[in-house]
Amino acid sequence: MTVSEDGAVELAPSECRTLIAGGDFGRLAIRSSDGVDIFPVNFVMHDDALYFRSGPGSKMVDLTSDPRVAFEVDERSDTSAWSVVVHGHAMRLNSDADIEASTVLALRAWDPSDKFNYVRLEIDTITGRRVRLPERKVDRVS
Amino acid sequence: MTVSEDGAVELAPSECRTLIAGGDFGRLAIRSSDGVDIFPVNFVMHDDALYFRSGPGSKMVDLTSDPRVAFEVDERSDTSAWSVVVHGHAMRLNSDADIEASTVLALRAWDPSDKFNYVRLEIDTITGRRVRLPERKVDRVS
């Protein structure tokens, strides 16, 4: 569907947190050695931080050299859509106690490789918007 | 829903192009002055390039200083999900002829500001995966 600019509403940080806490799938954007990269990831929110299992090995290397990340979650119904974007810092969890406390162990990784790396994303800022949707396109390619 | 690592399939570039050509909403990741940023955007695919109307003014500034971007589109059904990631270079369209030929004028921007900037993303690489989905979680955090 195409998202209209009509009726866009900025969401309060508290509402953004509620929305993202109800999600479990988002897109992680990081600086990479040759520009920028983006990965689909499953996640959990716990104690106001986001947790995920890392994907390809290169992702962990890039996070170590530059931990600044952006993370996006969105959801669409027939009549509206919202998108929440988190800016924050990612760090690898090295302690078994931290990993267990995060509840991240219940997650399955999108990517099967490198599945024993667990990452915490600490939220610096969280913003979001909700938009009304126009009529669904009927001529889309599928 | 949580995406399982079981049954993940790498998609051929031709299939990735077909999938992304059928989409109209994705997430654009760019290097920003203070790290990385990610934006939800509507897009069209035309002549093997992606076109979108730019959002906030800061996005255009960042694209001018570093045109390397990543762009992700995904879709989920009850039983499977796919995600396609494009790495490429973004450039502003300055010619009315280029803008009209791109078909981007039919798009509405996610963000109402700065709506007269049109951007072409030329594809350097395109990758994607399809995964089978496990049963939907019933105990999701909300």
From TrEMBL, chains A, B:
Pfam families: Pyridox_ox_2. It comes from the Bacteria. This is Pyridoxamine 5'-phosphate oxidase family protein. It comes from Lysinimonas soli. The lineage of its organism: Bacteria, Bacillati, Actinomycetota, Actinomycetes, Micrococcales.
